[in-house]
Each structure stands twice: as C-alpha cells, then as structure tokens.
Amino acid sequence: TMAFAGKYEFEGDENYDAFVQKIGLPSEKAEMGRNCKIVTEVLQNGDSFTWTQHFPGGRSTSNTFTLGQEAEMETMGGKKFKATVKMEDGKLVADFPNYRHTAEISGGKLVEISTSSGVVYKRTSKKIA
C-alpha cells in the first residue's frame, strides 16, 4: 500500500468552479473553498485511515474509514453518507453521493481527483510534514 500518512498543504486546483456547480454546492460554501489553503492530514494504520481537512479559521472535517468496509463519511458540503473506500492501483477510491473521488501520492504530492458527470476536478497538495 502506498504511504499516504502525512500533512499536505493545498498547492493548486483545476476546474473548481465547474465542479462545485455540477454537484450543487451552495455559492457561499463554494466561495469559502476557492483557492482555500486547506491542510490535509492523513493518519494511516495498515488499512485504516483518518483523513482530516483543516480549513483556515479553525474549521475541520474528518473521515475515518477502513479499506473495504462501509463507513460514515461527510461531503464537501457537510452532508453525511455511507461509502466503502477501496484501493485500486495504489489509489484510494470512494463513491460520494454525486461524484467519484480518488486520491493518490504522485511525485511526493497528494493528488485528489473528483469526477461528476464528466466534470473532472483536480486538487494537488504538497507534503509539509
């Protein structure tokens, strides 16, 4: 399994506006997330993960899951849902209610891709710890 553990700081993204529009994120939430210096902290213990996103201003969201087991998760918009995260070709893959999310470590960076009805949003974060 790839080592995901670490802290990653937002570096850049592609297609943010088209994606949040596609998934119906309210505009004030979309505004908050635009070019937001999110710090993603990943704790990994074998197949178990705690994935926390720290937002400027002290707010954070955290999802805890074990590969192949259904877990309660929270979306970008704060909705709760159940999903089973899988590992496919070294990528973590989760199906959210209206998009598919993958995460991988590539060139030392955390690369996350969310796809909704053909709209692809890519976020890259650099490792800081």
Automatic annotation (TrEMBL):
<comment type="similarity">
    <text>Belongs to the calycin superfamily. Fatty-acid binding protein (FABP) family.</text>
</comment>
<keyword id="KW-0963">Cytoplasm</keyword>
<dbReference type="GO" id="GO:0005737">
    <property type="term" value="C:cytoplasm"/>
</dbReference>
<dbReference type="Pfam" id="PF14651">
    <property type="entry name" value="Lipocalin_7"/>
</dbReference>
<dbReference type="InterPro" id="IPR031259">
    <property type="entry name" value="ILBP"/>
</dbReference>
<dbReference type="InterPro" id="IPR000463">
    <property type="entry name" value="Fatty_acid-bd"/>
</dbReference>
<keyword id="KW-0446">Lipid-binding</keyword>
<protein>
    <submittedName>
        <fullName>FABP6 protein</fullName>
    </submittedName>
</protein>
<dbReference type="InterPro" id="IPR012674">
    <property type="entry name" value="Calycin"/>
</dbReference>
<dbReference type="GO" id="GO:0008289">
    <property type="term" value="F:lipid binding"/>
</dbReference>
<feature type="domain" description="Cytosolic fatty-acid binding proteins">
    <location>
        <begin position="6"/>
        <end position="23"/>
    </location>
</feature>
<keyword id="KW-0813">Transport</keyword>
